[in-house]
Design goal:
By secondary structure, this protein is of the alpha/beta class. It is built from 10 helices and 8 strands. It has a domain of about 160 residues.
């Protein structure tokens, strides 16, 4: 069975990808903010201009379901010391940061945070924060705050639900501008904030960190593939009648996924 890459070539390809990673890249962001409350606090304090925020709990790639079973995966889901909830979404593609997506995420958080038997009047404040590579809203502003507003009274509705868009492409010397600079660069030495520079350096330059990042990338490659497609691909690989490319085309998967499955099954040509 033919193989596109030898193991050495696959490793080299991963190292090149890691070198090019930015915090705005989903795979790298996930690893850098995993179990890293200090970095999440930094982002929230700067974006919300609240230097006293203390994160009590945080999870990356957190899956949340609605009452009908439909789920969404939040990039970072955090709770602070006052019970306020934060969904931080890192978006390179504009289409993933639309108004309806923001509304949906906000509604899911509301359904998730109200314990059974507790009055809705006691529901915690929530923040859905999109950090986007481009100026999605098109106003040439560094940050946009979206809150419900009573037009006839000229007052905020004050329901505690907040949506924020951060334009990573806006450049200035404010703390927010410096933070977005750190999300866009590849070299930790070019970063402004030590919390981000240290964790970025670990996963790009430390031997153990690089090994952990490679493992995370391998896991993420097949994380979103359904079990049925995984099993079908494995059966085809074991049969040895089709190339990885042909299997990928037949199952509508990437060749990277097929190669990773082959590797896990011990079928990859060395």
């Amino acid at each position: 069975m033919g193989n596109k890459f030898t193991e050495e070539q696959r490793q080299q390809k991963m190292l090149e990808q890691i070198k090019a990673f930015r915090l705005l890249d989903d795979d790298f962001m996930t690893k850098c903010f995993e179990n890293n409350k200090e970095a999440i606090e930094l982002v929230l304090r700067i974006v919300l201009d609240k230097p006293d925020i203390m994160v009590e709990k945080a999870q990356v790639q957190y899956t949340m379901k609605n009452i009908k079973g439909r789920s969404v995966r939040l990039d970072i889901y955090a709770t602070d010391s006052k019970g306020k909830k934060y969904d931080i979404e890192i978006q390179r593609a504009d289409k993933g940061a639309g108004a309806k997506r923001a509304r949906y995420n906000s509604s899911l958080i509301d359904s998730d945070i109200l314990p059974k038997g507790i009055s809705v009047e006691n529901i915690s404040d929530s923040y859905v924060i999109f950090i986007t590579e481009h100026d999605v809203l098109g106003g040439n502003k560094p940050i946009y705050h979206i809150d419900r507003y009573v037009r006839e009274m000229g007052e905020y509705f004050n329901d505690g639900a907040h949506i924020i868009y951060v334009n990573a492409g806006y450049k200035d010397e404010s703390d927010l501008g410096k933070l977005m600079h750190d999300f866009l660069v590849t070299e930790p030495d070019e970063m402004n904030f030590k919390q981000l520079a240290d964790i970025t350096s670990y996963y790009k330059k430390d031997k153990e960190g690089i090994r952990a990042m490679c493992k995370a990338m391998e896991d993420m490659i097949i994380d979103f593939v359904t079990e049925d497609k995984k099993n079908s691909a494995i059966r085809m690989l074991k049969a040895g009648k089709l190339s990885e490319k042909d299997i990928a085309e037949y199952l509508d998967l990437s060749t990277d996924v097929i190669e990773e499955l082959a590797k896990q099954e011990g079928l990859l040509v060395k």
